[in-house]
UniProtKB/TrEMBL annotation, chain A:
Alphabetic keyword roster: Cytoplasm, tRNA processing
Entry similarity comment: Belongs to the CTU2/NCS2 family.
Annotated InterPro entries: CTU2, Rossmann-like_a/b/a_fold
Listed name of the protein: Cytoplasmic tRNA 2-thiolation protein 2
Automatic annotation (TrEMBL), chain B:
Keyword Plastid found: no
CC per GO annotation: cytosolic tRNA wobble base thiouridylase complex
Family matches, as SUPFAM superfamilies: Adenine nucleotide alpha hydrolases-like (SSF52402)
Record's protein name: Cytoplasmic tRNA 2-thiolation protein 1
Binding site for ATP: G68, A69, S70, D74, V100, G178, D183
Function recorded in the entry: Plays a central role in 2-thiolation of mcm(5)S(2)U at tRNA wobble positions of tRNA(Lys), tRNA(Glu) and tRNA(Gln). Directly binds tRNAs and probably acts by catalyzing adenylation of tRNAs, an intermediate required for 2-thiolation. It is unclear whether it acts as a sulfurtransferase that transfers sulfur from thiocarboxylated URM1 onto the uridine of tRNAs at wobble position.
Amino acid sequence: MACSASACQSNCYKTQQEEEAVKANNNTNSFAANISSSNNNSNSGLCLKCKANQPISSNSDGGDDARFCIDCFRGNLFGKFRFAVTSNAMIAPTDNVLVAFSGGPSSRVALQFVHEMHSKAQKNFDACRDRSLPVFGVGVAFVDESSVYSAPSNETDKVIGDVRLIVENLAPPSKELYIVPIESVYSSDSGDGRERLKKLLDAVGDATGREDLLLHLRMLALQKVASQNGYNRLLLGSCVSRIACHVISATVKGQGYSLPADVQYVDARWEIPVVLPLRDCLAKELTMLCRLDGLKTVELIRSPCTGINGLVSSFVTLLQEENPSRECTIMRTAGKLIPFHFNKIEEIDDSNVLLATRRRQKRYNLKPNESFSSESFCFICNSPLSRSDLLSLKNLESHKTSSVCCSSCQFQILPQDPSSVNELYTLLPEQLFARAKHDNLDHCSAIREQIQDCLLSEGEDET
Amino acid sequence: MEESADGKAKKAGARLCCLCHQKKAALKRPKTLEQICRECFYEVFEEEIHQVIVENQLFKPGERIALGASGGKDSTVLAYVLSELNRRHNYGLDLFLLSVDEGITGYRDDSLETVKRNEIQYGLPLKIVSYKDLYGWTMDEIVKMIGLKNNCTFCGVFRRQALDRGAALLKVDKLATGHNADDIAETVLLNILRGDIARLSRCTSIVTGEDGPIPRCKPFKYTYEKEIVMYAYFKRLDYFSTECIYSPNAYRGFAREFIKDLERIRPRAILDIIKSGENFRISTSTKMPEQGTCERCGYISSQKWCKACVLLEGLNRGLPKLGIGRTRGLNNDDKKDTKKTNGTKSIESKQCGTLDF
Ligand SMILES: [Zn+2]
Ligand SMILES: [Zn+2]
Ligand SMILES: [Zn+2]
Ligand SMILES: [Zn+2]
Ligand SMILES: [Zn+2]
């Protein structure tokens, strides 16, 4: 990704390093596992990788991560990131990337790595005589959820101030920062979004359902700000640990079918495709990098997870303590499930895409026949619906519109009795229904296509 | 269970059963939290199992069916309910009780007494196959030789084969086991935690081993453990509830504890886990290793010798470690787990398959 012009011969030190990163990544898929396998020949007390520098910590108190030197540790993490980016065509030179920054260590590292990649690309661009290829754009978005947690305004101001400072302190070129209030999911002409959001969350009885709904709204808010400001990639800092929790909680909520959609490097079912370049990094590693490199993070005002999500996260923490490679194994299991057709960036017919990148894509991406398409999505959480979901929906079709919903959302978000369902519908952001209608139109036209030859007149009511 | 049966009954007081609206509610149904009377509980409990049997076509008229009988709650309730349903709905099945005597003094001999009483109570013929007869070793003797460390490996491998051999002796068409919804949900989670995609794809099947000598089925696939306990309790069924003395897990495994915690805040989570397990998108090319037959005993095996023969060879040659390390990923995994935690904690609840099958 260093310089994207394959023709450029100036100081673009991409391929060799990248190949190394790939290699490193392949045998350090699980950082912890790698360490334990090389434990046997660690005689000297030097860094396990370069065997030259002092490790971060020589005693085992610091955990396995500490047996690399700082440079190798950082290099290893950045390697995983770059590997994910290049082998999945996450960022092309013409792309405009919005980094979702929550203030936590994972998205802080994501921001840092994107920033480093960006400055390198910029440097290469400046050095290249032939400036035909642009450098990708970077913006940062922070979703302000203070209205949900009713935090005192001075605390909110401090958090936002800190976020602003972090983004401003990144070396130039400066990056646009968007502070996105969560209530911005409502269209501006629909009155007091804050009030409506509060009412909506109050109307959801199940604590887990409320948390999950908020998560869906956060994504909606990010999608909206990305779309309105001309971004074409939304980059999240989701790490192995986070994804492992999601694997278990989705399983527990009966969402086994749609689960593989959420755990891939790329998720293009959204208007703005979502990419997860830190998918192979552990939370522990990312936190450590923040500490070592003095990357500032922001203490968040968020209530801790309760209900199912809370149980799952303490379960996974317990398992991880008992076996340090457990989170990786959980993610690997989910990785073996068949992804969906939208789990990749659509093939760009662009001769500028590095040949190496394309080759790698071929090697690591799914075979097309393995990912069959699915046409209906839950209008609340946007997860693809399974056959059993669709079948059980038949009798529910009676109330409102084209909006179909997965069994999980139906249980934990929608109220039990139909009259309250309609009330809840009035509180949901309009955008959700627009998306559902759009999907449904596609669906209808697909059906129409299939029966076209049997239709007699050229459709009297065509618009 | 005690709290939910007695405590809740008192609190519910005059509240009527929400199914029949006539009798006083006597319990809160674990699966749905509905307050219902005892008679309605029996009714829905049995009817659900009947529906599962019918919808999945578990049995055909005229079939001979062995019921794995350990004397524990699951298999006791299974024997009781199946003989009841067989009569009521004219399944036309010949039912048999099939027990394995591992040769564990103070555990299996007592639980076998329970099974023998069940034989008389339910009028079902009983067949007992013993490790001693099949392998020449009792579990007591095995433990004396290898200690308490890997005994569950032996226990599990030997039992699985012993059940098949017993079923063959009875000339049955199928073997029904008492695995309940909690067991299956736990298995789904364990296979995720271990990355065993092949087992993950099969573990929610209600019928397994159709390619093997004797297919097995799980009529309790959707039946909650708590409801089985409740049913046995109210019906005053005669079952044996002591833990295996060689099973090092008097505690519950992590995964099981997690499921119990989930059930407490959301009872349907157990069914949701099973549903996830059924709907996982797993490539059809993900298969278990090719099955052949053991060159020594003729039992199905993916290797030259079946697992039981390898273990047995080790025992007979005085090298009991033989075959233990070479087990599939999960057992390697287990060892790592136990090493890490001094053998006091494990992620799974039933290390040797299940004593209470
Ligand atoms: Zn080093
Ligand atoms: Zn949904
Ligand atoms: Zn009743
Ligand atoms: Zn055992
Ligand atoms: Zn054999």
